[in-house]
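The following record pairs a protein chain with its ligand, zinc ion.
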Amino acid sequence: MTAAAISGGCQCGAVRYRAASELGYPHLCHCRMCQKASGNYFMPLAAVQRDEFALTRGEPSWFWSSDLVRRGFCGSCGTPLFYDVPGAEFINIMLGSLDDPEAVKPMAQSNTGRKLAWFHELDDLPIEPDEETPDRENAIAASNHQHPDHDTAEWPSGALS
Ligand SMILES: [Zn+2]
Ligand SMILES: [Zn+2]
């Protein structure tokens, strides 16, 4: 399914992680807590064994969404990163934070009782023409503060800080 080492992190680069093994049970959770925690319509999650998982930069902040589950996110930029049941053998990673999100394809959905009624219509939405002007795109590219999709020796880099 995926290559041996999987890396990812938050948008600002303050928190980075690495999984040494394949991610298990990649799925979309539609529960209301995951909707809130992601600010989105669902949460894409997959599990990695805790001893195959390592933080490679920084520490996440945690919010206990119940007495049983805590959710890890970057305290600097807010990116949701982890769904953690302390004591479990696995920790779950938010798949949009992977450096290569294409590499881990969801295979299931859960908690579809809270799935938004029009979710299946999303891919049929009309596609807006790209309105961004080259000048604006260039200005965004030139002032990009998003961490690149690979590990970096130092961050922020001198050029982008
Ligand atoms: Zn961050
Ligand atoms: Zn959920």
